[in-house]
Amino acid sequence: MGRKLDPAKEKRGPGRKARKQKGAETELARFLPAAGDESSKRLSSRARKRAAKRRLGSAEALEMAKFPGAKPLPGKLPKGVSGGAVQTPGKKGAQSLLRASQGKKRPAPTHSSEEEEEEDDSEEDDVVNQGGLWGSEDSDADMIDDYGADSNSEADDEGEELLPIERAARKQKAQEAVAGSQWSEEETEEEEEAEEGSPESGPQKNDETDGGLQINVDEEEPFVLPSAGEMEQDAQAPDLQRIHKRIQDIVAVLRDFGTQREEGRSRSEYLHRLQKDLATYYSYGDFLLGKLMDLFPLSELVEFLEANEVPRPITLRTNTLKTRRRDLAQALINRGVNLDPLGKWSKTGLVVYDSSVPIGATPEYLAGHYMLQGASSMLPVMALAPQEHERILDMCCAPGGKTSYIAQLMKNTGVILANDANAERLKSVVGNLHRLGVTNTIISHYDGRQFPKVVGGFDRVLLDAPCSGTGVISKDPAVKTNKDEKDILRCAHLQKELLLSAIDSVNATSKTGGYLVYCTCSIMVEENEWVVDYALKKRNVRLVPTGLDFGQEGFTRFRERRFHPTLRSTRRFYPHTHNMDGFFIAKFKKFSNSIPQSQTGNSAASTPTNLDLPEVKDHMTPKPKGSSHPAKKARVAVKAKQQLQKRQHPKKASFQKQNGISKGTDSSSPTVSCDTKSQASSKLQDSSQPAQKAEVIRGPKVPRKLKQQLAMPQASKKVAFRKQNASRVTDTEVPVLSLSKTQATLKPEDCDQPFGNSKRAEKVKQQLPEQPFKKAAFRKQNGTPKGPETSTVSLLSSSRPPPAKRRKSQSRGSSHLSS
Amino acid sequence: MRPLTEEETRVMFEKIAKYIGENLQLLVDRPDGTYCFRLHNDRVYYVSEKILKLAANISGDKLVSLGTCFGKFTKTHKFRLHITALDYLAPYAKYKVWIKPGAEQSFLYGNHVLKSGLGRITENTCQYQGVVVYSMADVPLTRPPWRSCWPWESTGMVER
């Protein structure tokens, strides 16, 4: 790690070395004419302007204060100081890497640029900003222009024989001497932190050229995509430096594609090249990098990749069952640990900067006073907010950090059931819980999907689902290459199953609870928003705010997928923005214990549903008119109104799953019942009049029919229904409600759908809604697509919910049915 | 999971009594509910009755742990007390030993304590007595591997 002999490198810093021992560099600078040229080239834009002014011979303007560097520098310095104070260590690390990745390694300007970057961090720090800021500083300096005064006076003193270049060089040295005292510490730090791929000369040149790009666009050659031959060469012997430079160039080009593009090259070619380069430089597999490129804009992408190269700071959580954070911090500091409170959002967290003793082996650790836990792992438990004397289930608890946090929040009251499917990792759970003094926990070894059959009725459930681990790449770099499409989908499938089981284990009627928190340490949309969306469609749950006031909101749409708008209340965390492991947290509230019999669960359901609603409406209005019984007509009209209202309501509201589900369940039973009853009635009366149906619905006949129908196997049911339907008259009016695509066609066969043949193909289900809607038009069909799907609550399907649940939903939904 | 038999209960209580004497009753009748001992896979667990009710639903082969593990029965039906019982025994311990800060670290990492490291000791502590070791700050001390089942007397002091 010796110092490189770099004549062009400016010596900055207040230290002795900068001042005294100029070394060979300065000697060479005097003798080598090339060095002089380089130094002139290396002049900052401010220096160049000054040189130009001097050449013009504007001596008056230069007679200013004698202290050349003082004014512009203090301007920089406060920023530097404040920047330094504000920086957390993690951020500093990220900053230094950021700098390195951007290739700006000049010591002093780098530091100021670092602060500039810090300030602009949120705005996607880029070269343009950098150069612009630099330029603004120049203009400041120009106005004062102390350097010129000094050098000019110097030049005057020594006579006019000095060339402008030499004057500029001398001025620069004077500038350095003044600036040196302020920058020495930073310089050494920066030099130490410079481990990233690019060597110093490369980044410096980059900096120069980038700065030059800003000021004099003509000087710099526009970036050209490498030819095929070069690419092959890269594949064989990748030159990381070149690749890194190319990455930066491509990002810069793509940022301003219109002007900087190379003629004849498309954007996708640039992107393709960038993907290849990023994959090579950061050692990612192509699949994962493609996914990341979909997820992040380009500037964030580079930051994310950089952040994954560095571990997150070590954090620990105080065990409030045994000690307080203040006391623990004091005890650890006495042992020689350098730590700080984690942040405003955590009352028990501490972040460890460095430690002279192993942090996992202190007596305090053995006594169970704290637990080593990532900052992002504390968040789901904070979102869950367990109360005392509750029953909590932690479905995937290993290694026990979240479980113990739950226990400490509950103060060892209530009961926690900590479950994990992995026997080996359960041992660590046992150990941790005993160490931390948790006494209210039962530890079990089930597959999470077996809940709630084993035991259910919990007040709150925490599901930290097994995932692909793309948020914790810094902990496990193998994830970069060994994840592909199949892995992600397999994880997603498992997560969906676990989530449904978890939802079923929550007791919606719990006095204090009814909440479920789903979290993963992954950033993939397939494992996060998609799974949550699936659950919203399948169960009677809705998303509620997590209670975490920071973090990025989850996506409501991603590429071709559309999710429920309430997904905005979920939270995403990233390593490069929050300096904690990538995480996703969603909090559900279960509002009904019944399980909707939805079998389609299409994500595209909502749109067709909406289309169908107008149809239904249209169909509805004729129906009331067609009613032959005035009295019934009135009833029907009322019902129609109700239904219209209901349908409109969901239509207006977000038509996505949640509303659908919630309304669906409510309306579903009535709807379904209506349907079945109507069908039954039609069977009986051969009339599809709503009024009649209404009558029938109220009548006792329907249950009988229903039971008969239920008793039949579904297949035969369908046949029976077909017959019934065929006998009916106004089947054509059946609105196409069904959420599915085939809605437009009303078919008598759709009638049997309401019975929720789970076994049936989706098609059946889809057609289901049509019938109920049409017939039970006046019931609160809510037009929700879910309605038909979920309409099979209780009554219909012989396969699903037990009578108890059925009763519940029925009572909730329809008052007509008597079960 | 099953309650302890008479024999097992006797053996276990004898062992515990070595440390806390007659204060055993206090373990069972606690102000925040009744606690009991249950045996599962040869380990004795100390749980409150509320937890017991929920744990009854879990099948035996899937149950790993409940409440606090006090110790286990060996193949020859001797009872070994675990360090996890420390939290419950410490308040009722009859014979206590306090060690100086300097010796505390050494003790924690597995070494014996010399007489010079003793800070205080309860009177009338005879040799080979079961004691609970405290630091000067009255914190009962554990040591790695903290889940090992070393009875306290074996980690004890080298007298004289």
TrEMBL record, chain A:
Binding of S-adenosyl-L-methionine occurs at 396-402, 420, 447, 464
Q: What CDD domains has UniProt attached to this entry?
A: AdoMet_MTases
Primary localization class, coarse: nucleus
**UniProt superkingdom:** Eukaryota
- Which residues does the annotated region (Disordered) include? 1-214, 595-819
Q: Where in the cell is it found?
A: Nucleus, Nucleolus
Known PROSITE patterns for this protein?
NOL1_NOP2_SUN (PS01153), SAM_MT_RSMB_NOP (PS51686)
Name the chain's protein: Nucleolar protein 1
- Please name the source species: Panthera pardus
Encoding gene per record: NOP2
TrEMBL record, chain B:
Choose one Gene Ontology CC annotation of this protein and give it.
nucleus
Q: Which residues form the 60S ribosome subunit biogenesis protein NIP7 pre-PUA domain?
A: 1-83
Q: Does the keyword RNA-binding apply?
A: yes
- Where is the UPF0113 domain positioned along the sequence? 96-141
Which GO terms are recorded in the biological process aspect for this UniProt protein? ribosome assembly
Protein task: Required for proper 34S pre-rRNA processing and 60S ribosome subunit assembly.
The family assignment reads: Belongs to the NIP7 family.
Q: What is this protein called?
A: 60S ribosome subunit biogenesis protein NIP7 homolog
Q: What is the protein's species of origin? A: Panthera pardus (Leopard)
The gene from which this protein is expressed is NIP7
